[in-house]
Amino acid sequence: QVLSLPIVVIVHGNQDNNAKATILWDNAFSEIDRVPFVVAERVPWEKMCDTLNMKFMAEVQTTKGLLKEHYFFLAQKIFNDHNASPEDFQSRSVSWAQFNKEILPGRGFTFWQWFDGVLDLTKRCLKSYWSDRLIIGFISKQYVCKLLSVEPDGTFLLRFSDSEIGGVTIAHVIRGKDGSSQVENIQPFSSKDLSIRSLGDRIRDLGQLRNLYPNTPKDQAFGSHYNSE
């Protein structure tokens, strides 16, 4: 006899997401010489970061992994804590319930469902943009406002939507004649939207977008991703 890799049996496609979560957790955090089916209920956050990074790079097929600031945003999201410092999160542990049972505050989905949606979108439509580091992605709306509010008119960046599963949105700053600034978030694009017209071409279409944060002209940043009309 030999122990197999973990297997989950499902009866409907809508269980696929939970099955993937179960297998990811089991593969990443079970002990080699464990009693069958026994797996840790809580794991160190640092271990979870390594697992999410490995999963992201393998799924998207990219050499560009997650950065420290991405982990900080993900920690704020999974622990629902916006006051802790990055160092505070290093000593914490995350539970299976926080990973894929508890619904995120004000949302209709779990942390894993949201993260898996990001994986799917990036794999299908955003691989080259992510690999060129054109997408910040994992960043909060509040922090985006802080970054962009002091930038020149038309400065923009790309972040994964908080409110929708598998969406990417463009945040940009509009500066009034009196010097006041307003940060707008364009409605998120799904993989369906981006299969109709690519992200690069959508960015070219939007005249109000000028420079990719911090200060790269958009044609210089995204020119290689434009399709010839």
From TrEMBL:
Gene3D superfamilies: EF-hand, SH2 domain. Signal peptide: none annotated. SUPFAM superfamilies: p53-like transcription factors (SSF49417), SH2 domain (SSF55550). GO terms for cellular component: cytoplasm; nucleus. It holds the Pfam family SH2. InterPro entries: p53-like_TF_DNA-bd_sf, SH2, SH2_dom_sf, STAT, STAT_linker. Coiled coil: none annotated. Belongs to the transcription factor STAT family. It comes from Baryphthengus martii. GO terms for molecular function: DNA binding; DNA-binding transcription factor activity. One of its GO terms (biological process) is cell surface receptor signaling pathway. PANTHER family: SIGNAL TRANSDUCER AND ACTIVATOR OF TRANSCRIPTION. It is found in: Cytoplasm; Nucleus. This is STAT6 protein.
